[in-house]
Structure formats: structure tokens, C-alpha cells
Amino acid sequence: MRFFELLKENKEITDQDLQQLEVYADRLFASLGIDIEFSKHFKDRVNDPRNQKPITMAELTRLFKQVYKQHGKPIAQLGPDAEAVMKDMRTDVNIPFALQWDGQELDLVAKTIMRKSNFATPNPEFAVENFADGKVKGKSRPGRVKRAGASCKGSVTSLRAKAKKSSGEKAKMYHWCANMKSGRQNS
């Protein structure tokens, strides 16, 4: 069975699954001189019923991938004997880890894992935000109409007239206001 086929299944995570995840994460972090390892406690805790909802391979893969993208270099700069936590804000998965120098490269040893929303630690936290690419989806930015210098006050007809007289972002906001007032759906 291929690695990405494992991600689609929602089952207990086996030692073989963790070995495949380790190979995947090693390839990601290799450019930073970091080798990923899982402690025995991590392997015991990954399928623990205290996690409420079982932790999946997809969640673990996403977490390692996003931590590498967003925090890879700062983690490598922590140096040996440092401890920190990887946090996935969307799934509440937390992985405390330690960095150890093995004579050739840094080993990132994942000590344990748990699904807990209010996980507290004195160590640095490397959080992965809710969206995979870290960007706010769509154009949902509160205050966008006001910042553009537009106003949603007035009738649909008057808003359309203002949109014709305006340009750029201000015109878009007048159109948006008119569409919201008339009940049109965004395309």
C-alpha cells in the first residue's frame, strides 16, 4: 500500500505507518540537516483513547508538512538540547519534541502526541494555522468597504450609480453592497 493511500484510511496508526511518516518527514527536513524520530512513548500515545477523536495519518502528515513550510528554519536554529511543541490549531494535535545532536545532524525526537485544545507548555510553540497555505480564504476581510471609502447606505439603484462613477476597489465595494442588498449570490 502506498503512503498517500494510507492517508485516506481512518484506522489505528501502526508502526509501519509511523515508519513511512518518518521517511516522508526525513525527506522534508533533510535540507535543514534534521532527522525525524519518534519515541516509544509517541508510538504508544498516538492511538490512545484519551485523544478523544483518533489521530489520523492525514493529520500527522499535514502537521509535519506545514511545520516544515512555516517554521522549518526557526526550528533548525534552536540548536541541540532545545525543546519545543508543534501545534495544529485546526485539529488540536500537539507534538512536544526535543532536538538532539547525534554527531552528524540534529535529531528531532517527537516525544509524545496528544489531541488537546488548551495544551500549555513553557517551551516555544510552532503553531500551524487553520488554513493549509496560511492565507485567509476569499476576500473576507472585515472593514474592507470602509477602507475603500465606500458606504453601503442607500438603495440598490443609488449604490449601482456610485459604482459606475467610482473606480478600483471602491467600485467593487459599491457593487458588492448593491449585490448584498438585492440578495444576489456571489459567483
Q: Could you walk me through the main structural features you see in this protein, from its secondary elements to its overall organization?
A:
The chain is of the alpha/beta class. The chain folds into 2 domains: about 5-130, no CATH class; about 145-180, no CATH class. Helix content is about 40%, strand content about 15%. Strands 1, 2, 3, 4, 5 and 6 form a 6-stranded mixed β-sheet that branches. The longest helix is centred in the middle third of the chain and has 22 residues, at about 55-80. It is elongated, with a radius of gyration of 23 Å.
How many helices? The count is 7
The number of domains is 2
Roughly how much helix do the residues carry, as a percent range? 40-55%
What is the radius of gyration? 23 Å
Oligomer description: single chain
**Roughly what is the average pLDDT, rounded to an integer?**
84
| H/E series | HHEHHEEEEEHHH
Instruction: Report the biggest beta sheet as strand number plus sense, adding barrel if it closes.
Output: 6 strands, mixed
Short structural summary:
The chain is built from 7 helices and 6 strands. It has helices spanning 3-8, 15-29, 40-45, 57-78, 144-147, 156-165, 168-182, and strands spanning 34-38, 83-88, 93-101, 106-110, 114-115, 125-128.
What are its keywords?
about 190 residues, 2 domains
Layout of secondary structure:
Layout (H helix, E strand, L loop, with lengths): L2 H6 L6 H15 L4 E5 L1 H6 L11 H22 L4 E6 L4 E9 L4 E5 L3 E2 L9 E4 L15 H4 L8 H10 L2 H15 L5
Parallel strand pairs: 1-4, 2-6
Antiparallel strand pairs: 2-3, 3-4, 3-5
